[in-house]
Amino acid sequence: MIITSYNLSKSYKSVKALKNVSISCKKGEILGVIGANGSGKSTLFKILLGVLKPDTGLVTISSKKTKPIGGIIEKPALYEYLNAHENLKVFGRIQGLKITDKFVINSLKKVGLPIDRKDPVKNFSMGMKQRLGIAIALLNNPECLVLDEPFSGLDPMGISSLNTLITTLAEEQKLGILISSHILGELNKICHRLTVLKNGEIIKSGTTKDIINESTIAYNISAANISTSEVLKSYDVTIKNHQATVIVAFEDISELLQKLHNENIAITSCTPEVNMNKLFEN
Amino acid sequence: MKNLIFAEVYKLFKQGKTYYALGAIFLIEIIILFSAYSQGQDALDMILDNLKQSFYFEGNLLNGNLLSYLILNTLWFHLPLILIVIISGTLTSEYKDRTLLSVMLQPVAKWKFILSKYIVAILFTFLIVLFLAVTTFILAYSIFGDGDLIVYLNGLSFFESSDAFNRILWAFGFGAISMIFFSVVSLTLAVILEEPTKTWIAGAFFLIISNLLAKVNFKNYLLDNWLYVKLNDTWQYLFHFNIPWNKIYLNTTVLSLYTIVTVFIGVIIFTKKDVG
For A134, which residue in chain B has the nearest alpha carbon? Predict the structure, then answer.
């Protein structure tokens, strides 16, 4: 494990923000932390990043690097009056790095930012700021990356390209990545494991597949001719336009899809519909 | 530490508000000079009408030395107020924009980071006082020329032109120590209060209280001699007829100790605080 936390607890005055939270992440793994607003995600990440002291508990990071962990909390906080190059240079300089122009260009390219933008980052879109924030987090080559709500404020294109970047960093550079969000669909796409946080406590933890399947009560099946299906008539189904929402157990979905295929239903997508109440159920 | 100081200097001079501060100082000088140019001679004639019949003054009394002395007096309120806003802003803006959090996510020791802010605050204050002094001398002497200096400090004092220049120069030097104290206090207030408006109000309040208390006679040896407010006006001692150098050195040393203690308190508080 690159990072492990043991029984972290933290209170703000009378509010208990975290209660005995233990999580771990290994190299090359993407661990998603999902929870509603106020569930304790940001508090947990601040403690992991060392900017907040837990009341009890311990964080261990198995790395001998100067900067074992990098990250972004809530949204990237940059020097808005500086441009991307200058931001990288300032953040590099404060940690004693000699940042050359070539290094800056490589860093910007690595996160998919244009190298010719010389205007202040206050003009950047949220997606570009997220990328620059990640480039800054990656300075000094940490072995673990913590990203708190990286998708917030991003458009679908921005989310998609950020997903690609995160996956690449985990797969190619073997970074252990912890990522929090309340957008389950995005975490489902990129995370190997999921941890569900509710009122400061971990209520579920496991592989993304298991967590999603446990909480799936229906599947959305799209096909141009879905309304002609005879098979679906024996299920609890709602059909709108070219999409059928079918209440079916995880174990039975493969069989249903096979039957629809045999019926010459041209399926174009099948996505689980997670019941959030079930997901956040203890 | 060297890298942190460099980064702080870089950030300071990349921000527009730094140049607004320099502009504000320059504008204050211009206003004082313009007021003196338009009304100063009449006012001086009225005040010194009787004296001029008994004494001979070399040159015009409305001269570069008098104007430099008038601008020097911005060290009472105008300059420390501008410094309080700028210096406290170097930290409160980092709290507000959350860049402090981004910095703390890097492998940077908290005490080194905040100490570098204090060091840059001190350097910047020196620079601002130097800027004030240089621009004052250039503008005042080029517009109003040379001449004897008349100063009212518990009574009228007159200084010959060459003596006056040296006194004003030294006063700017010792005044810089007072300004550093205010800068350091404002940064410590920023450490404690974090929020810009609260810090500005607290800083301005501190300055007003300091100026009020400076005039109070506490009838207590310790308070009347060693309370910081009684040390902040040491630069005015340069305009005593016989300059009390020993008192100036001692006051400056004690005020420097106050400054160091304030820095130490700020570093301790910042280091113990959660940033998140």
Answer: B102
Residues in chain A: 282
Question: Max CA-CA distance within chain B?
Answer: 72
Beta carbons of A53 and B274 less than 8 Å apart? yes
C-alpha B204/C-alpha B223 separation (Å) is 22
* Whole-number Cα distances in Å, A106 to A85, A90, A100, A134: 11, 16, 10, 13
* Domain residue ranges of chain A, discontinuous segments joined by +: 3-199, 215-279
Least confident of A231-235, B13-17, B74-78, B154-158: B154-158
At A133, the amino acid letter reads G
Query: Per residue in B157-168, pLDDT tens?
Result: 788 888 888 899
Domain A215-279 has CATH 3.30.70: yes
pLDDT digits (tens, 9 = 90+) for A76-87: 889 999 999 999
Whole-number Å distance between alpha carbons of A52 and B101: 10
Identify the DSSP state of B8. Answer: H
Q: Is B122 on the interface with A (CB under 8 A)?
A: no
B7 contacts A93? CB cut-off 8 A: yes
- For A111, the 3-state DSSP assignment is coil
Question: Which residue bears the tokens 């970047």?
Answer: A165
This prediction's pTM:
0.82
Residues in B touching A76 (Cβ below 8 Å): 102
How is B217-255 classified by DSSP, letter by letter? --S-HHHHHHSGGGTTTGGGGGGSSS--HHHHHHHHHHH
Q: Check CB contact of A82 with chain B, cutoff 8 Å.
A: yes
How many contacts, defined by CB atoms under 8 Å, are there between A and B? 78
Enter the ipTM. Answer: 0.79
- CATH class of the domain defined by A3-199: alpha beta
- Across the interface, do B10 and A95 touch by the CB < 8 Å criterion? no
B175 — pLDDT class (breaks 50, 70, 90): very high
Domain positions in chain B are 2-272
- Return d(Cα B138, Cα A65) in angstroms, integer: 54
- Chain center to CA of B103: 30
Q: Does A99 touch chain B (CB under 8 A)?
A: no
Probe site for chain B from A49, A51, A55 (most B CB atoms < 10 A): A51
Span A123-155, pLDDT tens digits: 988 888 888 888 888 888 888 989 888 887 777
**Burial of A134 (C-beta count, 10 Å sphere; 0-12/13-18/19+):** buried
Residue A219: how many other CB atoms lie within 10 Å = 21
- For residue A271, give both structure tokens: 């996505």
How far apart are alpha carbons A89 and A83 in whole angstroms?
A: 10
| Residues B165-194, mean pLDDT to the nearest whole number | 93
Contact yes or no for A49/A73 (Cβ under 8 A): yes
Q: How far is CA A248 from the centre of its chain?
A: 27
Give the pLDDT of residue A2.
Answer: 83
Dihedral class, residue A227 (left if φ above 0, else alpha if ψ from -120 to 50, else beta): alpha
**A83 to chain B nearest CA, in Å?**
11
Dihedral through CA B229, CA B172, CA B240, CA B234, nearest 10? 20
